[in-house]
């Protein structure tokens, strides 16, 4: 996907998520985000959109904390769906405001502004799934978006330094394979890991129905006990324990 496709897709996602939460009790717990209510999820995701809009739109070179942004949160729960939806167009405009090669601040280091377009689409896909699960629905994630989301997570995981992580090894391979043909092979090395789209099995192989299943597994939204796991379960557990965002 190019930057325009990312920007259009995330704007559409935001509108769908706003429609999904409209009229629901925002005190409802979100099982996939322990301790969060639906209101917390909406505030977090909507504030992330607004931060990304500022960083991308102003080509910020320094870190921008969400706490420094006037979010304009609604005074009561009835306004949250509209507030969430209102973040779509400013985000879209911000993501398209500069040449896609323009370098800006990101939490994984200076990156072209297109990083934010991809990050917002993938983040909103996962949080949209969180909302769907909280509302008792089956998450609906486009297969191409899900596959890109897995790659995006693996690209950025080494920079997610807000918890200790051990993503190293001695050549062990972990494989995730879906019935739709999307597959990933991660190889662990003493100084980190590499990954590639691949149908190859590993020392441990996880088999799922869809790429969306792989994305939700890697984000800790689903448990491996619900899927076919072949091989070294201890290796898979070590990866899961250290890769959860």
From TrEMBL:
<dbReference type="InterPro" id="IPR034660">
    <property type="entry name" value="DinB/YfiT-like"/>
</dbReference>
<dbReference type="GO" id="GO:0005886">
    <property type="term" value="C:plasma membrane"/>
</dbReference>
<dbReference type="Pfam" id="PF11716">
    <property type="entry name" value="MDMPI_N"/>
</dbReference>
<dbReference type="GO" id="GO:0016853">
    <property type="term" value="F:isomerase activity"/>
</dbReference>
<keyword id="KW-0413">Isomerase</keyword>
<dbReference type="InterPro" id="IPR024344">
    <property type="entry name" value="MDMPI_metal-binding"/>
</dbReference>
<dbReference type="GO" id="GO:0046872">
    <property type="term" value="F:metal ion binding"/>
</dbReference>
<feature type="domain" description="MDMPI C-terminal">
    <location>
        <begin position="145"/>
        <end position="237"/>
    </location>
</feature>
<dbReference type="InterPro" id="IPR017517">
    <property type="entry name" value="Maleyloyr_isom"/>
</dbReference>
<protein>
    <submittedName>
        <fullName>Maleylpyruvate isomerase family mycothiol-dependent enzyme</fullName>
    </submittedName>
</protein>
<dbReference type="Pfam" id="PF07398">
    <property type="entry name" value="MDMPI_C"/>
</dbReference>
<feature type="domain" description="Mycothiol-dependent maleylpyruvate isomerase metal-binding">
    <location>
        <begin position="9"/>
        <end position="132"/>
    </location>
</feature>
<keyword id="KW-0670">Pyruvate</keyword>
<dbReference type="InterPro" id="IPR010872">
    <property type="entry name" value="MDMPI_C-term_domain"/>
</dbReference>
